Amino acid sequence: MGLLYDVGRWPEHLWSSHVQTFPSARAVLDNGTQRQPQFPGFASDMHSSLYCRHLSDLQAEAPAWARELLTTATELPEFQRLRQRCQHNGFLAGIAAESLLSTLLPMVPQAEEKARQEPAQQPPGHAAGEGQANGQGPAQHAPQGRPSAQGDAAAADQRRQIRQACREAAHTVDQAGQATDALQQALGRQQGQGPGTQESLKDLDDVRRLYALLRDNPTLRHIAALAGRLHRLGQAHKKARFEPAVGTVKGITLGGDLERVLPSELAGLRSANKLLRLRTLERLMSRKALQYLWRGEESLTRGPLIVLVDESGSMGHGPGSAGAWSKAVCLALMTQAIDQHRAFHLVGFSGHRSSASWREAINHEFHCDAGSSPPSEAVCTALLRGCDGGTSFNAPLRRALEVLQDTPTMRQADIVLITDGEATIADDVQQAVLAVRAREGVQLYGVLVGADARGNTLQPIATALWHVSQQLDGAVVAPLLAQVS
Questions:
Q1: pLDDT for 62-110, tens place per residue?
Q2: DSSP 8-state code for residue 461
Q3: How many independent structural domains does the chain possess?
């Protein structure tokens, strides 16, 4: 229940779900309740003011401290920009509200201190208990003609602190959005992204659970952010290299693309009626004009993907390591496969003893069929798997050949092998790979990470090799990402 606004049931439920998911939000509520028993209602108001487009009028019986804090905040341009970012996005509104409340908590007065101070603040002629039933005492008046410099300085200091709190909340929201967007896209799930966008409780639960993992794990946060950048680089390289497919008119839709807008819609721009010209421009700018619906005849998808990632000890672990960078490439490739409804198979490998079975070098793997989303737990486990041991190319290549042969949905899959080392390849494995390439058109791409990486053994069987320096430049693999998409 809101303290200042008549909060709707949906925003109230969103805030309650956020508090239940994040212990940090529960701690903020507990600390605020110790200062003011009505603090949970104020927290719900703060969340609703960020999430809702329209709010009810302030309730007359609202406490002075809550009214002053929220009114001061909503009048600041920093808060309005933050509100535009969070409107109708239950996940971001919860993150922003928690950040604001934690920063503003010291400004919430102690209930006991306020009760002791209120009698001394009443103007002459008022009874001691008058006007305090709702926790709001009359304002302290300065003598006429002498403005309270101390009061003005306190108000200015409060605005400065609230303005800084809004900036910190905006930074937290940006980090949360960037961290979760890449991982959510790779998992084939997207939460509501603004006014008019549908969002479900399942979507919000998924993104909150992922953010809980990302916030507490800098390595996973680094991988997700880098994967998003690599995916964008690959898409940009593809657009720069390939022309879109020639399409045909399939119908009529709404939009604002001038090259597709119907001539009858553009005729309003030549009208002598100024109001008609403005209405035509408004339809174009809001993308509500009638335009042709084009559909390309060229297929936008390719075959499945098998990604083999080296997890030997030399790859390292943690932000900035070759291991984290290689996992980011895996995540970017998985994002492309999910977007294009392609099957995807990931194999993490290291080395094994010469006397042991080659399968001991396979650390983990998971599979995702075309059109389905991989389980988030399996993806996070694969991305956070540590690196140790030696390197064996025979094991991952044998496993890739098995997947190609035994899994019908993986026939003619492209193979991407990411490594920082060099290892021998048995003659029978090399011949089997070359035979599959010749017979089924399978392509094998190698990504060599680090200045010391060599591709001598991969060169005879690889379609192409990309060498990434120690700076782990993402632009180097952009052609690879465009090639397999």
A1: 788 888 898 899 899 999 999 998 988 888 999 999 999 999 999 988 8
A2: T
A3: 3
Please write down the long-range contacts of 297-303, taking CB distance under 8 Å and 24 or more positions apart.
297/245, 297/246, 297/247, 297/248, 298/245, 298/246, 300/245, 300/340, 301/340, 301/341, 301/342, 302/340, 302/342, 302/414, 302/484, 302/485, 303/342, 303/411, 303/412, 303/413, 303/414
Task: Clarify whether residues 367 and 340 are in a common domain.
Answer: yes
Closest to 365 measured CA to CA, from 406, 311, 325, 424: 311
- 137 within some domain: no
Residue 14 belongs to a domain:
yes
* Residue 131 lies inside a defined structural domain of this protein: no
Low-confidence ranges of the chain (pLDDT < 50): 114-147, 191-198, 240-246, 296-301
**Contact indicator for 50, 5 with CB cutoff of 8 Å:** no
∠ CA(469), CA(382), CA(219), 5° rounding?
Answer: 60
Kindly report the backbone phi and psi dihedral angles of residue 297, in degrees, each rounded to the nearest multiple of 5, phi listed first. Answer: -90, -15
- Check whether residue 359 and residue 467 sit in a common domain: yes
Q: How far apart are CA 330 and CA 344, in angstroms?
A: 10
Whether this prediction's pTM lies above 0.70 is answered by: no
Residues 362 and 479 in one domain: yes
Give the domain-ending residue among 169, 193, 215.
215
Q: Which domain covers residue 321, as residue numbers? A: 305-483
Do 374 and 461 lie in one domain? The reply is yes
Q: How far is Cα 391 from Cα 378, in angstroms, rounded to an integer?
A: 23
How large is the C-alpha radius of gyration of the chain? 30
Output the 3-class SS for 113-152.
Answer: HHHHHHHHHCCCCCCCCCCCCCCCCCCCCCCCCCCCHHHH
Note whether 325 and 450 are same-domain residues. yes
In a domain, 446, yes or no: yes
Tokens at 95, concatenated: 């993150």
- Cβ 405 vs Cβ 433: under 8 Å: no
Which CA distances in Å does 46 have to 9, 42, 78? Answer: 15, 6, 14
Structure tokens at 221: 């946060």
Of the three residues 229, 261, 296, the one that is the final residue of a domain is: 296
CA angle 363, 347, 223 (to 5 degrees): 95
Type of residue numbered 163:
R
> For tokens 């970017």, what's the residue?
332
